[in-house]
Amino acid sequence: SEAALERVLAALRPLRAPVHHVWGNHELYNFSRERLARSGLNSRPEAAAVPGGDCQAYAFSPAPGFRFVLLDAYEVSVLGRGAAAPRYRQALRLLQEKNPNADRNSPAGLKEPQFVEFNGGFSQDQLDWFNEVLKISDENQDKVVVMGHLPIHPDSSDRVCLAWNYEDALSVIHAHQCVVCYLAGHLHDGGYCLDSHGVHHLTLEGVIETPPESNAFGTIYVYDDKMVLKGRGRISDRVMYY
Question: Residues in domain Calcineurin-like phosphoesterase (predicted)?
């Protein structure tokens, strides 16, 4: 794991542009949150800490009129945490309540199939912080792009790969006018929908499925009235008007 992480960081180091990271289940299979926080995959500014723990959510503005919000979809999770951690215990209680299967990575028979171990959720502290960021963005008339590893809209994912409390995050977004797009990963086949509030939900295809010796990446071009995704390999092209 350490050698693989170093290969990734070595490829990123020559970049002259800022790099922002969103942690997902594959990072947390290999490293604890404490180890990731000390690694090159921690891009959260120290001053941006969300109250209430070690949440990795933060916001930044790369240009006037645009704001990006990175959410920590595994803040409440059994992945990457020790059994004594409060967020671990909170996550375990949720799983025990929602998933009676012996294998808690199995969604078989579940009314809410997103409650599996390889997913996670958002704390109330993070959702409250997110709401305040969007309130300020509304006042500034910013266009906001939100990113999180887990999808939060059922029409942009299968029902298994959603964040545990996806409806809570979606309700925060729908309470404001500023969000134009939510970018996610996790579901390797990808997905897309334009929701009832005009927000684009784009779940990017997993480059982990790319055959050896081939390539896959996407570049999103951001304009005043649209975002244009140009993809290569597994990544599909997409035009998203605001």
Answer: 8-188
Q: Identify whether the C-beta of residue 122 lies closer than 8 Å to the C-beta of residue 75.
A: yes
Helical pair 124-140 and 166-174, crossing angle rounded to 10 deg: 20
Which residues contact residue 160 at a Cβ distance below 8 angstroms, ignoring those fewer than 6 apart? Answer: 107, 113, 114, 116
Number of domains in the chain: 1
Q: How many CB atoms lie within 10 A of CB 38?
A: 11
* 134 lies in some domain: yes
147-193 pLDDT, tens digit per residue, is: 999 999 999 999 999 999 999 999 999 999 999 999 999 999 999 99
Q: Which two tokens stand for residue 240?
A: 């998203």
**Do β-strands 200-203 and 226-232 pair in parallel, antiparallel, or remain unpaired?**
unpaired
Domain enclosing residue 200, as ranges: 2-77+123-204
Cα→Cα distances 35→18, 29, 39, 64, Å: 21, 12, 6, 34
Could you give the CA distance from residue 130 to residue 163 in angstroms, rounded to a whole number? 15
Q: Looking at the domain assignment, is residue 33 inside a domain?
A: yes
Residues with Cβ within 8 Å of residue 63, at least 6 apart in sequence: none
Cα–Cα nearest to 237, from 215, 222, 210, 219 = 219
Asked if residue 20 belongs to a domain, the reply is: yes
235 located within any domain:
no
CATH number at residue 43: 3.60.21.10
Q: Are 239 and 226 in contact (CB under 8 A)?
A: yes
Contact partners, residue 1, CB within 8 Å, separation at least 6: 30, 31
